[in-house]
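Dear colleague,

Thank you for sharing your sequence with our group. We've completed the structure prediction you requested, and as agreed, I am returning the results in plain text so they can be pasted directly into your records. Please verify that the sequence below matches your submission; if there's any discrepancy, let me know and we will rerun it promptly.
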Amino acid sequence: MKTFFKDILPRTILPAVLITGITLIIAGMPVGCKSTAEGIRILDGDFSVPQLEHVEITGSTSMSLTFSKSVQMQSALVGSQDSTQEEAACAYSDDSRTVTLEFPATTVGRNYLMEGVVRDGNGNSLTLSIPFTGYNDNMAQLVFSEVRGDADLQNYMYEFVEFYVIRGGNLSGLEFESAGDGSARKYVFPAIDVSEGEYITLHLRMPTSANSDSPVQTGMVDELGSDLTASTARESCDTARDLWTGDSKYRISPSDVLVLRNALNGTLQDALLFALSSYSVWNSKYESILKEVDKNQMWTDGERKPSTEVSSAAGADNMTAKHTLSRQNIPQIKELRAGNASEWIVTGVYGKSDNCSTPGYENSSTRYTKP
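Please find the predicted structure tokens below.
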């Protein structure tokens, strides 16, 4: 069995071109004579390889593949790392560009692999190797609640993103991404059940000692079950769920775009845009994630119209390790919807030790004012 990946979309698509539609006939070319085009005939035809355009896991027993042209599946095997592969049944759309595969039931969060070959009417073929995770038909719904974009390493205060659960379910298939760090460093949530009203703190940094690979703190433990006291490192919360990325260098940019994505269908559950007042144009590397926010209409401007302009982002001035960006309307959020800058403030009270940073707890409503 090949190496499995957590990502739901294909990491490896290996073209194997079998072109049978080209006939090249060479005749009347005696050895030693000057070559001419006489006797050479090239037949017309479509010799392009089918391209895989979209993959969607549609249920615990099915997935959908859409191609650039009409195809037929020559083979389609599905299996997990510790089981044998089984042939999947195939059904086709009217134009034969979309193929639906049916296979034995999968387990939520477990890693699987679909391997197959498709061929078009001219014999051009494409070999597929698509890793995916077992379908989650009871996905939890989360929203962003609080963000710390800086760290105070001396005092063990690291970057974090806090989420609030507005509908209970399983986290499998959800992923968090920061435009500042890029898709290669996105966080994929584990397959665990959570309850409505629960806070989840995703700690974005797990520093190690200078001379070893050992964490600088003990107790930086993922709370994957019902024991919410397992994580004992500073800023863990005994009444909320603590998760750790395991990354020793994780950071969030001072002006950034954060998304919470349903990787099963590519939609967004929530988005957060924030920027410094001196920031006027988004970094060019943010383009892809901004298009995603635009497509899903997950952020609005002052008139509540869809927008991803810097001018519509939440203000991030004075956001430091001591002063977090906090959402103020958490109790009123009952369903997934677009976010807005008016819902967010930088919290904290100057000179106070608690500084209103509240990972795992209800957010502070005190706006920080720089003296």
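Summary note from our side: Residues 287-296 form the longest helix (10 residues).

Kind regards,
the structure core
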